[in-house]
Amino acid sequence: MVARLVVGLTGASGAIYGVRLLARARALDVQTHLVASAAGVLNVHHELGLDRQALNALADHNHAPGDIGACIASGSFDAAAMAVAPCSMKTLAAVAHGLSDNLLTRAADVMLKERRRLLLMVRETPFNLAHLRNMTAVTEMGGIVFPPLPAFYLRPGSIDEMVAESVERALALLQVPGAAPRAWPGL
What we know:
This protein has helices spanning 15-27, 38-48, 52-56, 89-96, 103-113, 129-140, 159-173; strands at residues 4-9, 31-36, 61-63, 81-87, 117-122, 144-145. With 187 residues, the protein is an alpha/beta fold. α1 (15-27) links the parallel β1 and β2.
């Protein structure tokens, strides 16, 4: 059961996923701890028109990427899961290689070392061999690589529906109570 969720937001396109994940977690009464990279904040502004203050308002707690002493950098901090939404290839590589060079990648490393849920909503296409190897490494360490791909069999009527469904599926994979991905409708 997830009572606290760490959310990382990086510079990959798809800031809507992180913003929606924060909003949905709040609706499900899950405490959130946000760490957004500078490029992530820039993308939130470019893609959604939000500034840092508006982004920070979506989370219960905010942490600067350089604050390596923040609570989410410690395995003793009781957070059951972390999502990086969206996850850049740079962040994926840092997690895959255990770099822990900033708070976001350190928090992800903590999730892996403590055997907690870590979900990376990777955003890149096409993948090169380094991307694939990094995804394999994260998966072998227990992380979940989750490109937010639309489930067309659900016949979404809008981009909003596609984003909402990906967020619900991600929250369900993170074992957040109340997450409600739509069921296979059958054909």
